[in-house]
C-alpha cells in the first residue's frame, strides 16, 4: 500500500519523520511531500507560489540526525519540499503530481493538538479531508505538546491506528488522532472520542486601535463532555475521531428560498 505523507509544520519537522518511520515500519511505500515552511492554521486552503504555472519543489534528505533520533528507517529517504499548503499538496498528489497516485494520505505528526471544533482551522486535518473528498482514506496525527518529549508514544499510537485504518472495510473517512505527550507507561491507551464543542485554545480580544486589534490566545480551561477528545486527552488517553468530508446538510429546509430570477 502506498501512502502520501504530508504535514503543516513543514518538511523539517521532527513529527513528520516520526510518522514516516511509523508508515515504513508497517510495510508501506511512502511518498513524502511537505510544505517548505510552516503552514499551521491553513485548513484546506489551496495556496502555492507558482512560477510560470509551476509548483515549486525541491528535494530534502530526511535522514539528517536520523540515527541519533532513533529513526534508522529513514536512511536514504528523500522528501519533496513544496512551496504550497498541505491541502494543495494532497489535491495535486492524488492526481499523480509526485508519482503514482497514493492509496491513502497520512498527515502529521503535528506539534500541538488538533482537537475539538478547532479541527476546522487545522492544516493537518485539512490535508486529510482533502484526501477524503477525492475518495481516499486518510489519517491525521497530532501530539498535544508543541515541543513534545515523548515521540515514542505518538509513534506507537500512530502505528496502531494505521494498522486499524488499512484493515477498515467501508467508505473513506479521516481518522483524526491526538496523543498526550506522556511516556508509554503513563499513556492510558487509545479511545474513540467525539469532538469537543470548543478547541484547545481560545482567543481574547483586547485593545482596539487605529489599524490594529490586540488578540491573545490561551488554553481553554472550561469543562468538556466526558467522552470528548479534549476531556479524554486531559485524562491521559490518546483519542481517535472519525471525520467526514464536507457534505450538504439535509437538516435545513430550503424550500422557501426557491424562486424565479425576477422574484
Low-pLDDT stretches are 65-69
Strand content: 25-35%
According to DSSP, the number of beta strands is 13
Tally the helices: what do you get?
5
Using brief descriptors, characterize the structure shown.
single chain; 9-stranded mixed β-sheet; alpha/beta; 21% helix; 13 strands
Could you explain the architecture of this structure?
This protein is of the alpha/beta class. It is 21% helix and 28% strand. The chain has 5 helices and 13 strands. The chain has a 9-stranded mixed sheet with strand order 5-6-2-1-7-8-9-13-10, with helices on both faces. It has a two-stranded antiparallel sheet with strand order 3-4. Strands 11-12 form a two-stranded antiparallel ribbon. 42% of the residues are buried.
Topology:
Elements (H helix, E strand, L loop, with lengths): L1 E5 L7 H12 L3 E7 L14 E2 L2 E2 L1 E5 L16 E5 L3 H8 L10 E8 L11 H11 L4 E6 L7 H17 L6 E6 L9 E4 L8 E9 L2 E8 L9 H7 L1 E7 L20
Parallel strand pairs: 1-2, 1-7, 2-6, 7-8, 8-9, 10-13
Antiparallel strand pairs: 3-4, 5-6, 9-13, 11-12
Amino acid at each position: 500500500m502506498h501512502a502520501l505523507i504530508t504535514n503543516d509544520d513543514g518538511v523539517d519537522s521532527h513529527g513528520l519523520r516520526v510518522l514516516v518511520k511509523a508508515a515504513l515500519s508497517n510495510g508501506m511505500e511512502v511518498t513524502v511531500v511537505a510544505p517548505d515552511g510552516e503552514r499551521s492554521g491553513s485548513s484546506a486552503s489551496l495556496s502555492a507560489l507558482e512560477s510560470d504555472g509551476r509548483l515549486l519543489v525541491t528535494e530534502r534528505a530526511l535522514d539528517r540526525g536520523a540515527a541519533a533520533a532513533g529513526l534508522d528507517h529513514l536512511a536514504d529517504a528523500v522528501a519533496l519540499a513544496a512551496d504550497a499548503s498541505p491541502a494543495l499538496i494532497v489535491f495535486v498528489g492524488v492526481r499523480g503530481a509526485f508519482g503514482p497516485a497514493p492509496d491513502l494520505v497520512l498527515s502529521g505528526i503535528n506539534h500541538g493538538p488538533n482537537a475539538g471544533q478547532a479541527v476546522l482551522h487545522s492544516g493537518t486535518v485539512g490535508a486529510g479531508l482533502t484526501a477524503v473528498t477525492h475518495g481516499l482514506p486518510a489519517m491525521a496525527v497530532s501530539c498535544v505538546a508543541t515541543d513534545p518529549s515523548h515521540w515514542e508514544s505518538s509513534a506507537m499510537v500512530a502505528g496502531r491506528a494505521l494498522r486499524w485504518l488499512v484493515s477498515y472495510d467501508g467508505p473513506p473517512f479521516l481518522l483524526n488522532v491526538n496523543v498526550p505527550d506522556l511516556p508509554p507507561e503513563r499513556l492510558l491507551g487509545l479511545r474513540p472520542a467525539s469532538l469537543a464543542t470548543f478547541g484547545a485554545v481560545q482567543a481574547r480580544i483586547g485593545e482596539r486601535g487605529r489599524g490594529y486589534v490586540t488578540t491573545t490566545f490561551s488554553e481553554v480551561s472550561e469543562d468538556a463532555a466526558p467522552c470528548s477528545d479534549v476531556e479524554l486527552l486531559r485524562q491521559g488517553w490518546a483519542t481517535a475521531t472519525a471525520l467526514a468530508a464536507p457534505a450538504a446538510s439535509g437538516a435545513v429546509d430550503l424550500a422557501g428560498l426557491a424562486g424565479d430570477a425576477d422574484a
